[in-house]
Amino acid sequence: MTVDSADPTPRVIAFRYNPSTLKRSLQPQMVGGDDNARSAAVRFTGPPSQIVTIEIELDASDDIGTGQQAAVQYAALPQLAALELLVYPALAAVKQAQGQLASGVMEIAPLTAPRTLFVWGQKRVLPVRIASYDINEEFFDSRLNPIRATVTLAMHVLTYADVSPDNHAYFTFTAYQQALNTIAAQATGAAAPSIGVDSGAL
Q1: 151 within 8 A of 133, measured Cβ to Cβ
Q2: Greater confidence, 202 or 67?
Q3: 25, 61 Cβ separation under 8 angstroms
Q4: Assuming Cys at both sites, which of 14, 42, 55, 85 could form a disulfide with 33, CB separation 3.0 to 4.6 Å?
């Protein structure tokens, strides 16, 4: 889901088929406790750096078979285009910047990207920045539109360490971490076992 500052109406990109796999990589942000500072306590410098990677499978075969007009004309191209636009600056903003430049107004700041949220169920709503977008297209119609495609999307999760406190992403991520606290309490609600050398616990 994306929200542009120029158009507050959210634009939702729904997956017809849920991705079969979701990969998450978390890199803790810590200092201390290494060989150069053995006496120093291990401390967090912020939340972990997290990359979420999903594979999205698009297949327009059924829609083409039932005569769905957009699929007949474009196959899977509309869904691919909607995902690809996540990594483009808005064309209206590009034209506005070019118009200002032509009139002698120099725009120094880069164009602002729309606010992008990755929604995976009710408890996992994450502000993200698209890190990479890879497409594998196969089976084409007579117009060379792809009928099937696999998109691998890697997203860097934005945390409260990445943005200012007045940014929407700041509050979205703090709400996500609070949800983690609530869910984790369900795992720790039972009586803790006695921990010995043979115990398997963290």
Answers
A1: yes
A2: 67
A3: no
A4: 42
